[in-house]
Amino acid sequence: MNQMKKSRTAVLNIGLLATPEGRQAKAGAEQGLIRILKDAYVLAEDGVVVAVGTGQPDAQWMKGADAVDAAGRLVTPGLVDAHTHLVFGGWRAHELQQKLSGVPYLEILAKGGGILSTVRETRAAGEDALAEKAGLALDGMLGQGTTTAEAKSGYGLSLGDELKQLSVVKRLNRSHAVDLVPTLMAAHAVPEEYRADRRAYVDLVIKQIIPAAAGEGLAEFCDVFCETGVFSPEEAREILLAGQRAGLQSKIHADEIDAIGGSELAGELGAVSAEHLIAMRDSGISALKAGGVIACLLPATSFYLGKPYARARGLIAAGVPVAVASDFNPGSCPSHSLQLCMNLASWQYRMQPEEILTAVTLNAAAAIGRAETVGSTEPGKLADLVVWEADSLDYLMYRFGSNLARAVLKRGKVVAGRL
User: Fold this and answer.
1) 389-400: average pLDDT
2) C-alpha dist (Å) from residue 291 to 264, 285, 321
3) Which terminal residue of the chain has fewer beta carbons within 10 Å of its beta carbon, N or C?
4) R_g of the chain computed on alpha carbons
5) Residue 192 in 3-state DSSP?
């Protein structure tokens, strides 16, 4: 019986190929150890890397292959955004003047703004409208080099509306080039109708929303906003344990504004990742290390809110794997540019270019359970690549305010940009 011919792609004339290696997060000094190949090529069959080398590939293999000429440019794995709030209704530009006047984020939330404002917009929007809006954001992300992303719910805060958000994620994952990983975050805030009985909302999350999202296969992770005035460590523990019982791995928004024990809880529960960590204490760093938790840092949120930056160097020194993500959302980070986050990680976290590359590829992939398939350019992984208008990692971190992604490949096919 004749076998169907495999599709082949060869990315040739790569001036510099830079990639981490492996199938798990890298920590400490290893985070900065990447493979550098000059005058390189990458070969892929049916969207999967089969060979990486230098010089010219085997001429026989090249017969019938699609050739992509990198023309001496820098090539890296496709970027992985491990923290986004992709699906939401409306925007929050109307809060800008409050923020410029110094009104604190939690005060805006307490007055029914912030997350609760977006909840009202998201509840009012239909699936089609939400999918169209999120799809446009994904187009922008892909054009800047993001080929895989996490997408959280958390702007529905009811059974039907949380499932609606997650259904949009599932729909887009089928139709868009960017691969999406769904996270249930029904514990993003206490909705207005439950303000007088927050316990009833925690019960709703535990007894109805988590079982429904897990049972319908709409989520892989469960996340909680553990913060002053939002969810306490005790409530977060209950919710995350309920998620684990339902088969959802744990994530946690921790220590963004106040250190109330979120990072310590992440270590205790063995969460896959703890996110934000701006106000983290030394005990939080120790807990993440002991629990094998990935620190997912969000520098663009610090930038937008005028907040301090997380202790990236301290985390790396302690042997905690660091990922860097966008936190794209309508309130505290209305930007989905991982390139900007890479710049900020260089200037504000004082991370080295090699550490940053690992943070937005392999470590980010590990933070969303995808390190087996993406996050590095090596045989057996998807041929997700970015051809940069750059000749070095230093240049990539040095330039800002311009999109340096010349072309983006997903599963071996050019899906954005041009060469």
Assistant:
1) 97
2) 9, 10, 12
3) N
4) 21
5) helix
Residue identified by tokens 């999350």 is 205
Measured CA angle at 72 (ends 345, 148), to 5 deg: 45
271 CB contacts (<8 Å, ≥6 apart)? 240, 249, 250, 251, 252, 265, 291, 293
Instruction: Name the helix (H) or strand (E) containing 187.
Output: strand 179-187
Q: Which helix (H) or strand (E) holds 16?
A: strand 8-19
For residue 61, give both structure tokens: 């293999």
For the chain, the average pLDDT equals 96
Average pLDDT over residues 269-282: 98
Handedness of CA 296, 302, 307, 308 (dihedral sign): positive
The two three-digit tokens of residue 415, written as one number: 């899906």
Average pLDDT of the segment spanning 248-268: 97
pLDDT at 4 over 80: no
pLDDT tens by residue, 122-181: 999 999 999 999 999 999 999 999 999 999 999 999 999 999 999 999 999 999 999 999
Q: How confident is the model at residue 1 (pLDDT cuts 50, 70, 90)?
A: very low
* pTM score of the predicted model: 0.97
> Running DSSP on this structure, what letter comes out for residue 163?
H
DSSP letters, 233-279, are HHHHHHHHHHHHHTTPEEEEEESSSS-SSHHHHHHHHT-SEEEE-TT
Q: Give the 3-state secondary structure of residue 150.
A: strand
In angstroms, rounded to a whole number, what is the distance separating the alpha carbons of residues 272 and 269?
9
Structure tokens at 382: 């998807």
Model confidence band, residue 3 (pLDDT cutoffs 50, 70, 90): low
Alpha-carbon distances of 104 from 111, 114, 257, rounded to whole Å = 11, 10, 10
- List the alpha helices (DSSP H) in 43-126: 59-62, 96-100, 105-110, 115-124
Q: Is the pLDDT of residue 404 over 50?
A: yes
Q: How far apart are the first and last CA of the chain?
A: 38
- Answer whether 34's CB lies under 8 Å from 19's CB: yes
